[in-house]
Specification:
Elements: H1 2-19, E1 29-32, E2 41-44, H2 49-52, H3 56-70, E3 75-81, E4 84-89, H4 91-103, E5 118-122, H5 134-152, E6 156-163, H6 168-180, H7 186-189, H8 193-217, H9 222-228, H10 230-243, H11 247-271, E7 277-280, H12 281-297, E8 302-303, E9 309-312, E10 320-324, H13 332-346, E11 351-357, H14 361-373, E12 383-387, E13 390-391, H15 407-421, H16 423-427, H17 434-454, E14 462-463, H18 466-469, H19 477-496, H20 513-535, H21 539-558, H22 567-590
Parallel strand pairs: 5-6, 5-11, 6-7, 11-12, 13-14
Antiparallel strand pairs: 1-2, 2-4, 3-4, 8-9, 9-10
């Protein structure tokens, strides 16, 4: 950033001195020089033509001469192509910039201070009636990456989860377990708790369909049959008992939920994600009801004749929204209001980000208005980090039919595939134990999964292709990990040869265009981090890392590092390699991706 700042300040001073007019920094357009022209940075002079009243070429010539005279320590030379002033930067500037990047612990990150704003990010939001699936994987990876990105941009971050642990869907699993479970537990079956409960959710649906079919065959119309089937009526009865705090129902509910939480925790751990605070719908829905009734008293909402409570949002260009049913029970919106109330009590939130699929866009539009009406200072500015559907090549995921793409299966498959794909590479490593090979497979398999999902703009629907994701070539996690491991190997060999990474470098080294380009790419990391934070878009970081790695691989192919005979050049290339490995590790770390030291 230092080089750019010096040039922008000098251009500002030049316009004032040459043409007697002060310009704002926003008028000064500085960009990387196009590859076909000589130079590294280009000033676009067209915005200054009204001030100079000269041709573009003449204005650029004036400005170039001024800059070369004014900041000779920065500008080595210049050339003019129409309205573009191409600047060649002094090699010493690039060397100083490289050392600055390499010596910072986390280049491009903004430190978090006591006064930093607090951002709360909600992600995951599972139901306790089934295990996590591929859609949850995308949600968790996006939430975790976004939390890291916001922190790297100087925010305090609280990672939070809301667990949907109440409702008819939970009662379905409970009832099916009572009828068909024969006392089965995770311990007795060897199944993860969330998988066990998911099986009973599927079992409920199968038996319920059979009941509906029987009723239809006896002459009942399908809609009535769906409401009159004994299983669904019992599930509704169980929900009423739950609401009434029936000790037997509550005890079973707690026992089965605990099985699910233990299962979820295993999956979260395998994915490398976690939370600072978990909220439960069973604890927040009553708070939401209270808040809605408070809004009713204040005239913010109204009650219909059947006793239901509504918000009229037609003045805001939306429709009317149900907040409490006629029997007083809550809807999802009520729960979200209650959760917001508890969170606001627990934390001094400055910004709230909800990581939820794009099918909920309208819900969050409404929630924002309601929270604002109810007096939450961050309500109006809440961010719905909306993301698209994720599919596999063989079609969409469905849950009730039991054909869900299970998160645990996906993780295990990715690790097994990585083990197979990397067998040749890993086996070539000396003194590698089976345990180390398995750990490399875990890091590579999860890296492939995470990178493939996070490199896509979250707003888009995506097709997750496991085979493509684990390729060691192209825009994949393993390609980036392999380059990182290669650099670490170079640095280990340098250390074995007694070469330490120097704190200073000779300032009179002739840098190649490729070395300068690589330093420029490194400098761009700070911009990528800032952009990812401003746009809530972790894919900026993923794609930056890929471009940096491509650039480094070209450099590695074209230049000797440890075999370079000129010692000053050798040291420069070692420092350059160290800085690239550090930035790759930090960038991929923001995405929650581990980097293997060997591969």
């Amino acid at each position: 950033m230092e080089i750019a700042n010096k040039i922008v300040s000098a251009v500002k001073a030049g316009i004032l001195e040459l043409y007697g007019t002060e310009v704002s920094e926003s008028m000064i357009q500085l960009q990387e020089t196009r590859p076909e022209f000589e130079g590294q940075l280009t000033v676009v002079v067209f915005p200054f033509l009204k001030i100079s009243r000269k041709k573009p070429e003449d204005t650029a010539q004036d400005l170039g001469t001024f800059l070369k005279t004014q900041i000779p320590e920065v500008i080595q030379d210049f050339n003019v192509i129409k309205g573009f002033l191409n600047l060649t930067i002094q090699p010493s500037q690039w060397i100083d910039l490289l050392l600055d990047i390499q010596q910072q612990e986390h280049f491009g990150f903004v430190p978090v201070t006591e006064d930093s704003p607090l951002v709360m990010i909600e992600y995951s939001s599972p139901n306790t009636n089934k295990p996590l699936h591929l859609g949850h994987v995308r949600n968790n990876l996006l939430g975790w990456a976004l939390a890291n990105v916001m922190q790297a941009n100087g925010n305090k971050v609280v990672k939070t989860n809301i667990v949907n642990d109440r409702g008819i869907h939970i009662c379905k699993s409970m009832l099916a377990w009572q009828y068909y479970g024969n006392g089965e537990t995770p311990e007795s079956s060897g199944k993860k708790g969330d998988h066990l409960i998911g099986d009973y959710y599927v079992a409920f649906d199968q038996h319920y369909r059979e009941q509906v079919k029987e009723l239809v065959e006896k002459g009942m119309d399908e809609e009535t049959a769906k409401q009159e089937a004994p299983l669904i009526k019992e599930a509704h009865d169980m929900l009423v008992k739950w609401e009434q705090n029936d000790p037997e129902v509550r005890s079973l509910w707690k026992r089965m939920n605990d099985w699910v939480y233990a299962g979820f925790d295993e999956t979260y751990k395998a994915l490398g994600v976690g939370f600072d605070k978990i909220y439960y719908e069973s604890e927040t829905y009553l708070e939401g009801r209270e808040k809605v009734e408070e809004g009713l008293e204040k005239g913010l909402f109204y009650r219909r004749e059947d006793g239901s409570v509504w918000a009229d949002l037609t003045p805001e260009g939306l429709d009317e929204k149900l907040l409490l049913r006629s029997d007083g029970t809550s809807v999802y919106m009520t729960q979200d209001i209650g959760t917001a109330k508890l969170r606001f009590q627990d934390f001094p939130i400055d910004k709230m980000i909800y990581v939820v699929g794009n099918e909920q866009n309208y819900h969050f539009q409404v929630l924002s208005i309601l929270l604002d009406k109810l007096g939450f200072k961050w309500g109006k500015d809440l961010v719905h980090f909306s993301y698209g559907m994720v599919e596999l090549p063989n079609g969409k995921m469905k849950s009730r039919e039991g054909t869900v793409v299970d998160a645990d299966d996906l993780i295990a498959t990715m690790i097994a595939d990585a083990r197979q794909m990397s067998a040749d590479k890993v086996n070539k490593l000396e003194n590698i134990t089976d345990e180390e090979a398995q750990e490399i497979a875990r890091v590579v398999g999860l890296g492939a999964l995470k990178y493939f999902i996070l490199k896509v703009d979250a707003r888009k629907n995506m097709l997750f292709n496991p085979e493509e994701s684990i390729d060691f070539n192209g825009n994949t996690g393993p390609f980036i990990q392999y380059t990182y491991a290669r650099i670490r190997s170079i640095l280990r060999k340098a250390a074995e040869q007694g070469i330490e990474i120097p704190e200073k470098l000779s300032s009179d080294i002739t840098l190649s265009n490729k070395e300068i380009s690589l330093i420029q790419h490194l400098q761009g990391f700070a911009l990528a981090v800032r952009q990812a934070g401003q746009d809530y878009n972790p894919s900026c970081i993923a794609n930056y890392c890929y471009e940096l790695v491509k650039e480094y691989n070209q450099f590695y192919h074209d230049f000797s590092i440890l075999r370079e005979e000129d010692n000053n050049k050798k040291l420069l290339r070692i420092v350059l390699s160290a800085a690239v490995s550090q930035v790759i590790k930090d960038g991929m770390g923001l995405l929650g991706i581990e980097m293997p030291e060997r591969m």
